[in-house]
Fold:
Amino acid sequence: MDEQFNKPDTAKEWKLLEKVVLSVNSEQRSARRWGIFFKLMTFAYLFVALLIFMPSNVGKGAAVVGESYTALVEVKGVIAAGEEASADAIVTGLREAFESEGTKAVLLRINSPGGSPVQSGYVYDEIKRLRALHAEIPVYAVISDLGASGAYYIAAAADKIYADKASLVGSIGVVGSGFGFVDVMKKVGVERRQFTSGEHKAFLDPFTPLDEEEKVFWEGVLATTHQQFIEQVKLGRGDRLKDDPKLFSGLVWTGEQALGLGLVDELGSSSYVAREVVGHENIVDFTPRPDPFENLMGQLGVSVGQGIASAFGISSSPIQLR
Structure:
């Protein structure tokens, strides 16, 4: 009889014990998860703090007082304000390279499709100014994969231009592009409401029909910019340019073809120029580098907006040298 009365009590005790064990295990798992979470947060905090206090690399680590070297400044990517190849960044590197005591020559290593004519013009003018102040320091442009349009504009300011036989060189032209959404808006039933003061204030608006008079005007702006580009290239290259009607048509050539057209002087790499032309094989990089933390935040914050703007044909500079 006693065993029969004790069985239900024993079962209840086991169930209670099972609940306690399961509860303890659950709490332990939860504690481990929170522990992992806080460890990851601590690691992320330390990582961000390291980026914040890490000094930006200006690239002069190899420079030694009393030594002579070839100074390097890179022109990499799209030439535009706020980009890695902005005029501010390139000019800063150029000034520091020219003013450095050990600099025997300045190499412009170019890998760019071009970009803003204003930014390219700023760099071109600064190269000419610095050369006039430092007559003993030559400037050599070296085109790697691509030196087109605004990038070639900059290269034309150098004393000599070098490229690889397979480099893409030239594209001396101007483009201003966009989209027209007038018919699409009609189909989806969207009404455009825009208020302006000035007869032609909205002439680049993609949501209004293209006016023939405004089209002619815009083509004139592009033609004027193109002519400015041509004049600067001719000023920089002089009689080295061949008399070819296609030279300023916007076409692009290989380095080997560009050599025959007078767009480049010789075939060679940065190391070749430093070693064989300058005579100082040690290359010191003066290219300003963006702060790692600012660069990361900028990419996270701006990439979406740039993607949308690009999709709709909106650019910070409506005219591009490319």
